[in-house]
Predict the structure.
Amino acid sequence: MDSFQNILFKLKKYWGDRGAILQEPYDIEVGAGTMCPETFLRVLGPDPYRVAYVQPSRRPADGRYGDNPNRLYKHQQLQVILKPSPEDIVEQYMASLEAIGIDLRKHDIKLEEDNWESPTLGAWGIGWQVMLDGLEITQFTYFQQVGGVDLEVVPVELTYGLERLSAFLQGKDSVYEIEWAPGVSYADVRHPDELQMSVYNFELADVSMLWKLFDLHEAEARRLLEIYPDYEEKNRFPVLGAYEHVLKCSHLFNLLQARGAISVTERAGVIQRVRRMAVGAAKAWLDQQARAKEEAA
Amino acid sequence: MADKFLLEIGTEEIPDWMIPPALDELRELFTKLLADNELSGEVTSVDASPRHLVLRAGGLPVKQADKDELLTGPPKQAGAKAAGGFAKKQGAAVDDLQVVQTEKGEYYAIRKEIPGRQTRDILARSLPQLILKLYWPKTMYWTGPGGPRFIRPIRWIVALLGDDVVPFELAGVQSGNLTYGHRRLGGARVPVTVENHEEQLEKNRVIVSAAKRRARIEAGIAGLLDGTDLAVKPDEGLLQILTYLTEYPTPILGGFDESFLDLPKEVLVTVMRHHQRYFSVVKPGGTLAPHFIAVMNIGADPDGLVREGNERVLRARFNDGRFFWDFDQRQKLAGRVEELGSVTFHAKLGSYLDKAKRMVAIVESLGGGEDAKRAALLAKCDLTTEMVGEFPELQGIIGGLYAKSQGETEAVGDAIYDHYKPNSMEDGIPSTADGRLVALADKIDTLRECFRIGAVPTGSKDPLALRRAAQGVVKILVEGGLTHRISELANGGEQLAAFFLDRIRYYYRDVRGFAYDEVNAVLAAGSDDLPDVEQRLTAITAVRPTADFEPIAASFKRIKNILSQAGFDGGGEVAIELLREQEEQELYRTFLTVREDVEGRRAKREYQPALEAIASMRPQVDSFFDEVLVNAEEPDVRQNRLTLLAGLLNEFSSIADFSEIVTAKG
């Protein structure tokens, strides 16, 4: 039986062997691996790209104080982006499951319709949830639009839910029982995180501070994006810096939501604010990349 | 020699529910392709698995028939030179020309033989467009912007006419004779012929026939339960989903711990049906058994791995359900009312707290008592529970269960439980009077508010399901025998009242199956009080087959035409002294007697005898029209006759407008 970390190694090696750059997690809080620049920005434009990384994904509202065997405030996703998507991508994906010891002639695998959409990122795609013996283990998406832009090259995104997959492989009923490393359980590693962050997110986070931070990060992202059109040396411009502040806003929005601090009437407006910045960053990135190409040519 | 044709579009997994309509369309498009190209032959079958869309046709000719065509050239008076030029252009001698008579005069013409094109060429040219023309609810591109759009990427195409490949390219895929078997149990690039296609696929663990897959699932389930006292809970919708979600379906029987049976059966069934796509299993007597049936997309589960996996997933789901139930008890429904303020009902219409308050007011205006008002206030509170967050399809039901377990009255609990009903026209209405009021209030509020801000359904777009809401109101009023007036429910909104009228019409015609002209006749005489509409409709349906009815309806239509042609708009009294002819006197006397009778019966809602009384006037009406000329020369006599007819029409149109009845005579 493979440990959690071994399963991870094997999957990373599998995709590394198929030309993916193996990245480490992005060091800013995100709700999903899709939001990292390695996905959100890299899928834009014509250049091929392949990358895989584990991304701890924070969803404050999903926290359950470490009480619920299947629900986590922070879970680990293996995010794989292949741009363009290979023609035999479904086969390659299935072979990745076999690489971690799942014999698909003896298990039931189904691809069930599940399209993905993120209003805050101006992004959507077509795809499936992959069901293994009745368990959803992966979200499989062909991106169509990101940052409000139709993609020039259609990438595929594979998002493996690592806790579920590991619980499946190890035959565990609770994610906390997963063996992370030999002799060390998932609970040993992560339970305090789940408990304490649930208390913080639901009970103790200072709402007015969260709003203040949101406003500060928003102002900075917008200030930068407004400078971009007139900025002389475009190749030096920190689009990535602006985008980091967008990510901060997105996470703060999630925290405010979990805290019950966003009223019904405010909610749509705040989503719109984050979306406007995300779309702005995507457009600036595309422009910057296109100019760099022209100069190189 | 006639050939068979086979087309297989090989894709990645198509959503199950989209497949049957796409197959119907594929059949239509191909049939049209044959007709447009004057090719004989017909589609013999269409069938599909998630990755194989298949069309088979037979009787296709090798080529189109050759055609003789007469090409007209210049007019004869243009002379020999023009004729020579025309002949030369057609590659013929002047002697080959003939002169034909057309509408515009005499013209030179030449008979040319147009050779028929090869069927294979026609298909090769037309199939790419045909395939891309298939309608899908949501499409994608995968080769790049501007590239072909389809439901999922096309990965291979088989196109065979007899022994030959029909060659074409689509989305970078070249058609050929190679198919693909089951993703894990079958081979890739499997050569097939028109004859052995189905058999080859089956060898590679793809059953391309949906009927066979369905039969395999049914037989498999029967086999699993054989020798037990268990039965599967029939579920046609689920069977259909699983048929189109699998290429090689095999059912397995799984179990769960008996202790989960303490959870409400609604939760258990929802988890199994909607989240896991399992069939429920029942014991004799119909109570749930601690078992389920899952359908795999492989042939067998010899080591029980798939069963164990599914059992583990279900256990986790049921544990979630138990966890949510316990967790939700920390706060009673009544304590959740304020929280509704942070749940959006509609971006422009505020929160569910606002809605709950409006619902209470509506229930009150409909005459609801304390229980109904309490239920209206609490009806939406389950939206803030963990259980509904996880299982949104259980909203209302969960609220009802919680209410009862938290000490609310049985009446309040039942009313909350049922308040989303009816979910469809096949679904029942809420089982209690309070439930009907709360369900009405919920729907009426949604309708009024959405119409107020102009969020009105257009064409096929009805994102807020307002048609279903209005349809639900109609069904509850009729089947609950509730006399609340439509005009009151619409709150004076004309647009909403008209929307209701459409739904009333639909309900009686399409749901209840009444004849459309009877529905029109009854609604023309009033549509505000639905139980009354129902009684009038039942009466007219009963009277319709009697001998006098259709003739008198035809006469009423004639009266209406006469009045409208005469531009008669007045009422007034009939002047007895001006009734000259015996037949009109007779008709007037009968009218007076019948009117009295009808008025008495109408007041008592004895519509059938009232209608029979009206129909009994047929002899008098007939002889009036036979013997009396309405358009008399003397204006006062004519006016008097029109007054008599108008009286008849007005007095007797308040149960049903007879002129709406479609009769053989017109």
Remarks:
- The two ends of chain B are 54 Å apart (CA to CA).
- The first strand of chain B starts at residue 3 and ends at 11.
- DSSP finds 24 helices and 20 strands in chain B.
